[in-house]
Specification:
The complex is a heterodimer of chains A (216) and B (276). By secondary structure, chain A is α+β, with helices and mostly antiparallel strands. Chain A contains nine helices and five strands, in the order H-H-H-E-E-E-E-H-H-E-H-H-H-H. Chain A has two domains: 125 residues, SCP2 sterol-binding domain (Nonspecific Lipid-transfer Protein, Chain A), CATH 3.30.1050; 70 residues, no CATH class. Chain A starts with 7 loop residues before the first helix and ends with a helix. Chain B has two domains: 104 residues, no CATH class; 144 residues, Rossmann fold. Helices cover 45% and strands 21% of the residues of chain B. Chain B is globular, with a radius of gyration of 17 Å. Classes of the chains: A alpha+beta (216), B alpha/beta (276).
């Protein structure tokens, strides 16, 4: 049996899986945060992201319960009838949170925008406005005391992990640079560069002296 | 493997509401008997049997779909939405729409200027779908129509998109239904048929059979308290045309640029065709 245009991605429905997960997460966030105001202007507008790392587009449509006020985001892979399309990479996307960043990134050729740029700016502004107090959200589910203990524990763990990370980094550096001598330090490179410059200078001086003697 | 047996009872109940519409059956030359899955029975018996199936599992419809498919039916439906090219302002017909999964998404995507018609031959399923969608706050741009796919009660060139998900296999005269759909589509409109199909590989096919005939009825017995209905479902799926045959049927009905995409190894296929 032939399978026209079949791809692994479509067979596994990766885009649909990712879209469903993103949609659930984003709408959960929307339910926690009063960001509906910033979504007001985006009613029924669609922004499509074409990320270099993914083999499919992701479209975000702001919609509301018809007749209701609550805004929600629908995520899918529709590419027809979109208001704005951004071609970029995940790395650049992280920087795309402020309106001014958008223009800057376009200038740097890190992203390509087609369609209504205002839609992209409004989406960027919406992303920028999201600021959720996770601690109080958690407290609603497990209580103040448990949340406090959990946050304390996570802070402690974070400090220890941070310390461990630095320690491992230092040990690894020591092993590679001094014990195995696989790489050189920055100082050694600078010292080497300086020596090369000195030799170069001496060679130039010597060349000048030879030229002077030849003239005589 | 558990994805195989999504149960579209809304269509399964066709014969329960219309004596002329047996579900996925093939009528015998005697014209007095018909198939109920693999069994040959009197047509009159089938009406009550299918109605019984529906009444038995209707309340568990969505739960069973999720359970039997491990939720993958939601991805199949998302795939259908993605392939629809729906835009704000479009008019969409969700044929055999059942409990309105596709309608819910379409309703949000077409917006206030658009319109979605959730059509099903069975009024009970329409009621279930309407209640569900109203609970979600989807009220203003959805119409509910009790309609037979073979005789769609709409004017010519009405819809931008027509979808029929897990419904076509239960229509008695599929060719007639496809012609009827073609008629109501606008020029430039597209039809999407999401339906169980033939797995591409023998290994999947065997696993599919094992699941369908051994696990599914037990699951139905346990959850919906009705193993026989799910045995029937498994049998009905086997009688549906394979991918190439259905594509040819779309061609014959007048659709152009017809194509299909296999999903989950061909357990389900999405057929697409345009009216120009």
């Amino acid at each position: 049996m032939t399978v026209p245009n079949a791809t692994i991605s479509s067979q596994l429905m990766l885009s649909q899986t990712l879209a469903a997960s993103l949609e659930a997460i984003i709408n959960k966030v929307l339910s926690l945060e009063s960001v509906n105001g910033s979504l007001e202007k985006l009613g029924q507008k669609t922004l499509t992201l074409v990320l270099a790392e993914l083999g499919f587009p992701l479209s975000f449509t702001v919609t509301s319960s018809i007749g209701g006020n609550d805004k929600m985001l629908l995520v899918n892979s529709l590419t027809e009838g979109v208001d704005c399309t951004i071609n970029t990479s995940i790395k650049t996307l992280r920087e795309l949170q402020a309106k001014q960043q958008l223009t800057e990134l376009i200038k740097q050729d890190k992203l390509d925008v087609t369609g209504d740029i205002k839609v992209a700016q409004q989406f960027a502004s919406f992303a920028e406005n999201i600021d959720i107090d996770w601690q109080s959200e958690l407290a609603k589910h497990i209580g103040d005391v448990a949340t406090h203990q959990l946050m304390k524990l996570s802070k402690k763990l974070s400090t220890k992990l941070n310390f461990a990370r630095k320690q491992i980094q230092a040990d690894a550096s020591e092993y590679i640079v001094h014990e195995q001598r696989l790489v050189v330090t920055r100082n050694q490179i600078e010292e080497f560069n300086q020596s090369v410059n000195d030799v170069n200078l001496q060679a130039v001086e010597l060349e000048a002296r030879i030229a002077k003697l030849n003239k005589k | 493997m558990a994805t195989f047996l999504l149960f579209s009872l809304s269509e399964l109940t066709m014969s329960a509401t219309d004596h002329n519409q047996s579900t996925d059956t093939t009528q015998t030359s005697a014209d007095k008997t018909t198939h109920f899955g693999y069994k040959t029975i009197d047509k009159e018996d089938k009406v009550s049997m299918v109605a019984g199936v529906f009444h038995s599992v209707a309340k568990q419809y969505d739960i069973m779909n999720d359970l039997m498919s491990f939720g993958i039916h939601r991805l199949w439906k998302r795939f259908t939405i993605d392939a629809s090219g729906v835009r704000p302002g479009n008019k969409v017909l969700d044929l055999a729409g059942g409990t309105g999964d596709l309608t819910a998404k379409f309703s949000q995507l077409v917006g206030k200027q658009g319109n979605v018609v959730l059509a099903d031959i069975n009024s009970s399923m329409l009621n279930v779908g309407r209640d569900k969608l109203r609970d979600k706050g989807l009220v203003q741009n959805i119409d509910y129509v009790q309609a037979n796919a073979q005789y769609l009660p709409f004017e010519d060139n009405t819809f931008d998109i027509v979808t029929i998900a897990f419904g076509l296999r239960n229509v008695t005269d599929k060719d007639m239904a496809l012609r009827s759909i073609y008629r109501v589509l606008k020029p430039g409109g597209r039809l999407l048929v999401l339906e169980f199909s033939k797995p591409e590989h023998e290994l999947i096919n065997k696993a599919y059979d094992f699941y369908s005939f051994n696990i599914l009825p037990k699951m139905g017995e346990l959850v919906a308290k009705d193993g026989d209905s799910y045995q029937y479902l498994a049998e009905s799926i086997r009688m549906h045309p394979d991918q190439e045959t259905l594509k040819t049927m779309l061609d014959n009905a007048g659709f152009e640029q017809t194509s299909f995409k296999n999903l989950t190894g061909g357990v389900v296929a999405l057929h697409k065709g345009y009216k120009f």
